[in-house]
Automatic annotation (TrEMBL):
Pfam families: PDZ_2, Trypsin_2
Domain of life assignment: Bacteria
Keywords noted in UniProt: Hydrolase, Protease
Region feature (Disordered): 46-70
Listed name of the protein: Trypsin-like peptidase domain-containing protein
Gene3D superfamilies linked: 2.30.42.10, 2.40.10.120
Domain PDZ, chain residue ranges per copy: 308-387
Acidic residues bias spans: 50-61
Family: Belongs to the peptidase S1C family.
Protease as UniProt keyword: yes
PANTHER family per UniProt: SERINE PROTEASE FAMILY S1C HTRA-RELATED, SERINE PROTEASE HTRA2, MITOCHONDRIAL
């Protein structure tokens, strides 16, 4: 009985402690608290007006803050450049590659087969000038179709191309006013800065939106001859780790300002696969501008000076036939008496091994190096003559015709 009375008293005290406190003490404690208690109206499902408004305002502000934080230099650059990116579809006659194919064509009159290819490009003027790689359009395209991000397709004509630098210039056949991109000075590129590649890898441009990949400028001034069977040599290329794949060729490489710093051209796989492994290369914008200005003017690219000599690549046949040193370089075959080469002491039979700071590997390589100079420049040349190494400097100018 005593135990029952003890527990009853304990329960009563506990009840008084939890629910029956002095109202004055409760109000006093509430006034000293940092958090205001919920009112009876809120507990009954009718919250006060100020409590309803605060969460809504905070939610709106938070959403706006999150949206602003997602927008950055890269998204701004992509938004700026997107309308000027194009997809290029080319149809050309395919050459017969084997004797068997030629045999059937000769006897059965099989017409030339059509070969289709796709690539990327970008607009550089409001009247529809488009820049891309020469290997995208080929040498003799039959039809060129350009698709823009607004879903429209246009026929285009080839104004000119340069196989050596792998640059082509097209014009859309339309009176429409187009958005376009501007070039940046590629001499101002900073290794480690953002690089943004836009294009049409694997033909994914069907939805009208280019693919965007982002990386950094990994290196500059890279020289490559990616295909041993192709004489094309790439000089002073921009290296990037922004993903570039088949179909990206001809698309722009942008900086964080949305300006073109180069044309995405090829990838280096190191013999591991045919896919991207982190080594992509772009033609620098300054070279692109120089080439397309000549293509726009004359449809072809020529030197604006005359070196005053002719040369050919060193080969094993030349080495054995004329008992020449076994070195890579250029064999000078003729020299014009009224040209810069003669004035700086170059003679037929000399072997040019270096132009500027570059070791010369072939005639095509030399032509690419000569493109880097203009009339009025001085070109450093290193050559072999009778087993001795000589240096000279050529003042580049137009050929003077003898009276």
């Amino acid at each position: 009985m005593k135990r029952l009375l003890f527990y009853s008293g304990l329960i009563v005290n506990l009840f008084l402690f939890l629910g029956c406190s002095n109202p004055e003490e409760t109000a006093e404690n509430a006034g000293n608290s940092e958090e205001q208690p919920f009112s009876a109206a809120y507990l009954e499902g009718n919250p006060p007006e100020e409590i309803i408004d605060e969460p809504d305002n905070d939610s709106s502000e938070n959403l706006e803050s999150v949206t602003e934080s997602r927008s950055n230099a890269i998204t701004n650059a992509v938004e700026k450049a997107n309308p000027a990116i194009v997809s290029i579809a080319v149809t050309s006659s395919r050459n017969y590659q084997s004797a068997q194919e030629e045999f059937f064509r000769f006897f059965f009159g099989e017409p030339p087969r059509e070969h289709s290819s796709m690539g990327s490009g970008f607009l550089i003027s409001e009247d529809g000038l488009v820049v891309t790689n020469q290997h995208v359009v080929g040498r003799n395209p039959n039809d060129i179709t350009i698709s823009t991000t607004d879903g429209e397709s246009y026929d285009a004509e080839l104004i000119g191309s340069d196989e050596l630098t792998d640059i082509a210039l097209l014009r859309i056949q339309s009176d429409h006013v187009f958005p376009f991109l501007e070039f940046s000075d590629s001499d101002e590129i900073i290794v480690g800065e953002w690089s943004i590649a836009l294009g049409n890898p694997f033909g994914l441009f069907n939805d009208g939106k280019p693919t965007v990949t982002v990386g950094v400028v990994s290196a500059i001034n890279r020289d490559f001859r990616p295909d041993p069977n192709n004489p094309r040599t790439y000089i002073d290329m921009i290296q990037t780790d922004a993903a570039i794949n088949r179909g990206n060729s001809g698309g722009p490489l942008l900086n964080s300002n949305g300006e073109v710093i180069g044309i995405n051209t090829f990838i280096y796989t190191g013999g591991t696969s045919s896919g991207f492994v982190g080594l992509g290369f772009a033609i620098p914008s300054n070279r692109v501008e120089k080439i397309i200005s000549q293509l726009l003017t004359s449809g072809s690219v020529v030197l604006d000076y005359d070196p005053g000599m002719e040369f050919t690549s060193m080969t094993e046949q030349l080495v054995y036939r004329y008992r020449l040193p076994y070195v890579s370089g250029l064999l000078v075959t003729s020299v014009n008496r009224n040209g810069p080469a003669y004035e700086c002491g170059i003679m037929p039979g000399d072997i040019i091994v270096r132009i500027g700071e570059e070791r010369v590997s072939s005639k095509m390589h030399a032509m690419a190096l000569l493109r880097e100079y203009e009339e009025g420049d001085h070109m450093y040349i290193e050559l072999l003559r009778d087993g001795e190494l000589y240096q000279t400097e050529m003042a580049l100018r137009q050929k003077v015709t003898a009276e």
